[in-house]
Design brief:
- Helix content is 47%, strand content 14%.
- The protein has one domain: NADH Oxidase (3-Layer(aba) Sandwich).
- It starts with a helix and ends with a helix.
- With 210 residues, it is an alpha+beta fold.
- Strands 1-2-4-3 form a 4-stranded antiparallel sheet, sandwiched between helices.
- The radius of gyration is 19 Å and the shape is globular.
Length: 210
């Protein structure tokens, strides 16, 4: 536990990455698996995670993110996207996948399917999209914590034009839209943000016990 607290104390939103330092295949695979294993409400996983390493694509994305250098200088750029439609088909896909993984017939999960359908159909399209967005941010937290635990720097980013990102990455065809970014890699030795003392409210200001 102490090691995780030390990792969270160590991490910060990296502003300047060292473009010469890249994640190993093992490090990248670990972050991808952490995202895949992220929890979500109802277990429905209403997301896609796009890992962008192509320099030409990232140069385009940088223009759509107010020319922030993290977009191109980090080892990799993760684009966390939410599904536009979490509907009956999404429930069917999840139930069928669960049945296959657990090696049971889909009919044995009928009560689960009924519960999921009731929850999904009770939301308006806007409510469903907002719900999905909240799940994506859970995955972002898992990604940031995992990166910190492995000594990998990261910078969560909301400063970008989602529509332009969606266009550049062809996300419309995938039925998803970009929601938040995470640049990952290794801090530059002269990143001034690394020298700033972490600023957090005191425990008694944010933790309430009853």
């Amino acid at each position: 536990m102490q090691n995780m607290l030390e990792a969270l104390q160590w991490r910060y939103a990296t502003k300047k990455f060292d473009p010469s330092k890249k994640l190993t295949d093992a490090q990248l695979g670990l972050l991808e698996e952490a995202l895949r294993l992220s929890p979500s409400s109802l277990g429905l996983q209403p997301w896609k995670f796009i890992v962008v390493s192509d320099p030409a694509i990232r140069a385009q994305l940088r223009k759509a993110a107010w020319d922030q250098p993290q977009i191109t200088d980090a080892s990799h750029l993760f684009v966390l996207a939410v599904k536009k439609n979490v509907d009956a088909k999404a429930v069917d896909d999840f139930v069928n996948s669960t049945a296959k993984i657990r090696k049971v017939g889909p009919e044995t999960l009928s009560r689960l399917k009924e519960m999921l359908m009731g929850s999904i159909t009770s939301r308006t399209p806007d409510q469903a999209r907002e719900w999905g967005s909240r799940q994506v941010y859970i995955a972002l937290g898992i990604l940031l914590a995992t990166a910190a635990s492995e000594g990998i720097d990261a910078c969560p980013m909301e400063g970008f034009d989602p529509k332009k990102f969606d266009e550049i990455l062809g996300l419309e065809a995938l039925g998803v839209e970009s929601r938040v970014l995470a640049a990952v890699g290794f801090r530059a030795s002269d990143d001034p943000a690394a020298q700033s003392v972490k600023s957090r409210f005191a425990k008694d200001e944010v933790i309430i016990e009853r």
